[in-house]
């Protein structure tokens, strides 16, 4: 598929022929949270960047310029690629490519592309945190048209990228609205005080008879999901799941990051790591009522009272937490609260589906243009 005014053959090139791999440095003393880039503040699925949370002190980092293409080299399959819209600095785990004989935005089209990402992953090293091989990347072979055709293709894809960025902004705003509504609904609830231990029971039934073979993992955004859906190759022995715990639909799970994002709600049956703590609700709770509350600001802040350790060693003392109080309304009010939240969540799901379709359109265009 090409624009009708172009007909010449595309030329085969390698990445090292049309780009420079940037090594120049810049002091972090002159950077801001808006122009410092690390793997942490690059968004997956070619989603751009967010402001950094912090900047390293008194050191030099890679200096990128406007129109450079930045690639997160930790777990490249996350598709963190960004076309710089200004000058700044980035960590060493972010590779910077500068166009030298190719239209800059066309270079971004080449790299923000599943074909390129799959090529990078084919040479990646490491299991838990795979990293791409710079020398292999530079040998990536692709075809390019004339500068004029590159410019026209880039403009078309730029329009689509802008639409995707707008859609992502809609999704982010809806998530913020949903969080604000959850905070307000659960803050002002009237009802009776209970200990968490009066509402939830710790269960430890093991998968001894191999009743289930699907392994679930905790996700802060989606609750308990199939481990295969995490897109992380976690190695484990199939026979080991006889010692895994059985999770039922409607259970809540305390996981390693619960002190940051709350408890994970399970809408499916399966097994999970014995490191997780499974909580089963009783009939004082409507199905899923605590799921939104467990992600609320007030609840996560309350966990500080029962969270011990430092950095990644932090964990919740579940016994102490079960002795904390929470106000629970009637079942009718619980269902009403959930119905309000469901309206926003349905809208959010619809917008996510639109975003997924836009990404598929972009991928299809790239494949049809032989990029």
Automatic annotation (TrEMBL):
Domain of life: Bacteria
GO biological process: DNA restriction-modification system
DNA-binding recorded as keyword: yes
Keywords for this protein: DNA-binding, Restriction system
Type I restriction modification DNA specificity domain ranges (all copies): 45-175
rRNA-binding as UniProt keyword: no
GO molecular function, one term: DNA binding
Alphabetized Pfam families for the sequence: Methylase_S
Coiled coil: none
PANTHER family the record matches: TYPE I RESTRICTION ENZYME HINDI SPECIFICITY SUBUNIT, TYPE-1 RESTRICTION ENZYME ECOKI SPECIFICITY PROTEIN
Recorded family membership: Belongs to the type-I restriction system S methylase family.
Protein name: Type I restriction modification DNA specificity domain protein
């Amino acid at each position: 598929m090409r624009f009708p005014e172009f007909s010449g053959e595309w030329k085969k090139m390698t990445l090292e022929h049309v780009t420079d791999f940037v090594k120049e440095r810049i002091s972090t003393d002159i950077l801001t949270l808006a122009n410092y880039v690390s793997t942490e503040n690059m968004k997956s699925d070619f989603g751009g960047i967010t402001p950094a949370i912090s900047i390293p002190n008194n050191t030099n980092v890679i200096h990128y310029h406007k129109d450079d293409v930045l690639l997160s080299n930790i777990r490249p399959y996350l598709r963190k690629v960004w076309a710089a819209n200004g000058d700044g600095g980035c960590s060493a785990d972010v590779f910077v490519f500068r166009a030298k004989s190719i239209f800059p935005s066309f270079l971004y089209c080449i790299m923000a592309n599943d074909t390129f990402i799959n090529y990078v992953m084919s040479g990646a090293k490491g299991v838990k945190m795979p990293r791409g091989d710079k020398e292999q990347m530079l040998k990536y072979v692709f075809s390019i048209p004339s500068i004029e055709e590159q410019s026209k293709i880039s403009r078309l894809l730029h329009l689509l990228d802008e639409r995707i960025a707008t859609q992502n902004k809609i999704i982010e705003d809806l998530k913020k609205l949903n969080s604000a509504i959850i905070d307000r609904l659960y803050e002002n609830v009237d009802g009776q005080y209970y200990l968490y231990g009066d509402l939830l029971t710790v269960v430890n039934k093991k998968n001894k008879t191999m009743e289930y073979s699907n392994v679930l993992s905790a996700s802060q955004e989606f609750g308990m999901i199939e481990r295969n859906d995490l897109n992380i190759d976690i190695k484990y022995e199939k026979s080991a799941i006889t010692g895994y715990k059985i999770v039922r639909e409607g259970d809540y799970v305390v996981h390693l990051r619960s002190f940051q994002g709350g408890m994970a709600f399970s809408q499916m049956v399966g097994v999970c790591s014995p490191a997780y703590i499974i909580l089963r609700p009783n009939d004082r709770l409507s199905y899923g009522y605590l799921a939104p509350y467990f992600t609320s600001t007030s609840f996560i802040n309350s966990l500080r009272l029962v969270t011990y350790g430092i950095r990644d060693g932090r964990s919740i003392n579940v016994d102490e937490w079960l002795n904390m109080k929470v106000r629970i309304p009637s079942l009718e009010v619980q269902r009403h609260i959930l119905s309000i939240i469901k309206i926003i969540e349905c809208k959010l799901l619809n917008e996510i589906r639109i975003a997924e379709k836009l990404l598929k359109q972009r991928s299809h265009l790239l494949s049809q243009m032989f990029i």
